[in-house]
Amino acid sequence: MELFCSQDPTSKIIPLPNHHTRTHIFTRINTRVTGPGGRRRGSRRSGGLVRAEVAAATALVEQTGGKMVVELVGAFNELTERTKKVQSSSSSNILFKSLKLSLPIFHTLPLAPDGRSSLSKALSLALLLADLQMDAEVIAAGILREVLEVGAVSIFQVRDRISAGTAHLLHESLRVKNISSKVEDLDDESAVALRKFCLTYYDIRAVILDLALKLDTMRHLDYLPRYQQQMISLEVMKIHAPLAHAVGTNFLSLELEDLSFRYLFPYSYLYLDTWLQSHETGSKPLIDIYREHLLESLKTDSLLAEMVDDVSVKGRHKSRYSTMKKLLRDGRKPEEVNDVLGLRVILKPRSGVDMSDVGARACYRTREIIQSLWKEMPDRTKDYIAKPKANGYRSLHMTVDVSECCRTRPLMEIQIRTTEMDKLAVGGTASHSLYKGGLTDPEEARRLKAIMMAAAEFAELRLKDFPFTNHKGIEIDHRNRVFCLLDKNGDGQISIEELMEVMEELGAPGEDACEMMQLLDSNSDGSLSSDEFDLFQKQVELMRNLQDKDDEYKIKLNEKLQMADYSGLIQVYS
């Protein structure tokens, strides 16, 4: 596509690079020309002036400096939106400096073997760590991991320019990376020993970083020949998936197990996945339908409302791998597995003299409400409230048949507990998770759990100085953090010198700052106010959202087109 500025005597043909740029330009013009509600203002502005803005916006996206700043702002905002652990000024600085250091290096690196750019790969890992609510040092280490491995920066440079903690995590993660090379044969006994070794001698945050990197790798294995897919998957199944469970990152362990299962036993995976998919109806997952239905019924019950202040319902699907293990171990048919679907009801009893008694009565009332919604399977009900387990675990378990008159559904397990019971359950499952990670001694498991928790709390405390504030001491939201980080003298404006400085740090020519300032400085005072910069951030967010949509549609299209290849490997599909 080309644009011809006919009314300008110096007009020339300006190429518009892609639809993201076009949308960005339109947003810029629309914001300037229209007022609230879409009413046009300044309609007498000449078409030549509008076209000049189009040319300037195009130049910003095409120039090196403008593109770098867009990537810096977009990546920082997305990461801070998705984690609660980057709230202090020191945490934000660590994350911001790691992005500034790595972005220019990423642009010099070739595509990864799986076809992704180095920047895309690093941000995928960083966002995964942010979703796990890891602290800024772990996320920064995830961003810098690849630039360190290719030799673009050293551990000492990371220590001097980012933080000593980030450098330590990178060093530890490289040690964890080669853990499987410590044994010649990866049998069950050596796998257990390796997992115990990791839990004992490595920084737990470095272990989680390596697990997140392994999951990112597993999500993009299709480019490898099948024998390599199976070798990697076997290692993940024996070492990394149980290790992820042991450190309490169940989200990682479940997906690692399912992906390994898919590559190791593609036909079994396809059989089970097809059966599970056959029960879904429409675009909304069954578990979400049942969760919302139950939550509404609980919140509208007057008797329960008298006993509790709050009700929450969580839902989960049993993983493909766990379902297959149960089928093989017990010799069941798929329809006989009673916890393929699962809900957990957590009740917060009203404050009073005997909260324990009120909580127990609320649990039993919840059971009565569930019985009115679905058919209970009495032989599968377990009352751990009346008869707690030896370790103090208390909860009410029941299994219900959610089949409809014309369609059968998998059985659904429902757990009912109070907030206090849930806290105890989480603490009690720590030993169980470590046991699955390879520790059979309960005392040893508890000791290691205490060490893991202490290490995580110490790291969080060390980075928790003060909430992020501006120069007037007013607490600000995540969107204004980038502005404050660029406004180094704290005068409430980003000057051309400050903009040139960040451009040069990103490896772009400082002259690009003048062009960017001209585009964003709407009142032409030679600096950027927080409002002007916020408008720019909104445009960046729109561009990133469009790119995400494009990626989503591309994945869906590929899923429609992909089929099982001749080797028997089953591609991922919806």
From TrEMBL:
Residue ranges annotated for the EF-hand domain, each copy included: 474-509
SMART domains: EFh, RelA_SpoT
GO cellular component, one term: chloroplast
GO biological process, one term: guanosine tetraphosphate metabolic process
CDD domains: NT_Rel-Spo_like
Record flagged with keyword Calcium: yes
Gene3D superfamilies: Beta Polymerase, domain 2, EF-hand, Hypothetical protein af1432
Subcellular location: Plastid, Chloroplast
Keywords from the named record: ATP-binding, Calcium, Chloroplast, GTP-binding, Kinase, Metal-binding, Nucleotide-binding, Plastid, Repeat, Stress response, Transferase, Transit peptide
HD domain span: 118-218
Source species, domain of life: Eukaryota
GO-annotated molecular function: ATP binding; calcium ion binding; GTP binding; GTP diphosphokinase activity; kinase activity
EC number(s) given by UniProt: 2.7.6.5
Family (UniProt): Belongs to the RelA/SpoT family.
Protein's name according to its UniProt entry: GTP diphosphokinase
Native species: Lithocarpus litseifolius
